[in-house]
Amino acid sequence: MKVVFAGTPEFAAVALRQLIAAGFEIPLVLTQPDRPAGRGMQLQASAVKQVALEHDIAVAQPLSLRMDSKDPQRALEAAEAHARLSSLDYDVMVVAAYGLILPRSTLDIAPCINIHGSLLPRWRGAAPIHRAIESGDRETGVTIMGMEEGLDTGPMMLIERVAIEDADTTGSLHDKLAALGGTMIVEALRRMERGELTATPQPEDGVTYAAKIAKEEAKLDFALPAVEVWRKVRAFNPFPAAQGTVNGTVVKIWNAQLAEGSGPAGKVLSANAQDGIVVACGEGALRLLELQKPGGKRLPAAEFLKSFPLEGQMFV
User: Fold this and answer.
1) Using CA atoms, how far apart are residues 243 and 199, in angstroms rounded to an integer?
2) Coil, strand or helix at 247
3) Among 10, 17, 39, 309, fewest CB within 10 Å belongs to which?
């Protein structure tokens, strides 16, 4: 089969590598335009583009695929991309975290299959991994689905479940689901080649939406129950990184665990090498395990305290 691949971040790059290793012919990769990144804000190619270039695969980076865009430049690039896809000989488009909406004109060229990091219909949308951890879900998974114009509403073709462990962060769970998604998309295309890939409509019950993560969400509210704050710490690792403010200094909190204790919300109950950093929450307390001050490195609590004493302080 000839596969056009559309994706942008590392989650998608893992799947692209799997398709290449499995021997699928990939005449074109679609990915988002290069973006400024790093301290120097130099233009950086997406993870998917980097994989494509390593394997001499043609790359297209339109700003949009909507030919009806009111932005003339976007409309022009969309028309050029549509013409290129229409003239291309391919059997299926595989989409994974592309970041652009596929309009009906694109969906009509060839079948489109999506790799989605949740157990649909739960967590349709942009941030399914973050939201699953933040909400305290005990399991998640990957769904291979047919694409429609609706937001992750298409029929399900394959689905696999993964337990969410207490130690999981969005980073660790992302890696598990990315690897699983790569394996599953290869299996889905093999079944499609054999005419054995079937699709089941998503159930109407249980639909939830995983809104895109905003940087403002990083600020922790210690008035919440400790279990909710703990989930947010894990959900926002590595992005946007949970944070609290102490004496006007923003401190990033990378890892934590539930602890015993009570007091005014945000009060540091202990801050020493023996007991660690324990902060009171609205209900219960949280032990902070890894922190980072501005301009510093991520440090275990004991190391962090050597240059940033917290005994008796308040997180706000």
Assistant:
1) 43
2) coil
3) 39
- The pTM of the full predicted model, rounded to 2 decimals, is 0.94
Distance CA 235, CA 254 (A): 10
What 3-state DSSP class applies to 166? coil
Q: How many angstroms from the chain centroid is the CA of residue 253?
A: 19
Q: Percent helix, strand and coil across the chain, each rounded to 5? A: 30, 30, 40
CA atoms within 13 A on the CB side of 205: 0
Domains defined along the chain, listed by start: 2-210 (3.40.50.170), 215-307 (3.10.25.10)
Of 272, 264, 256, residue with least CA distance to 222:
264
pLDDT digits (tens, 9 = 90+) for 19-70: 999 999 999 999 999 998 877 778 999 999 999 999 999 999 999 999 988 9
**Cα–Cα–Cα angle for 142, 66, 37, rounded to 5 degrees:** 65
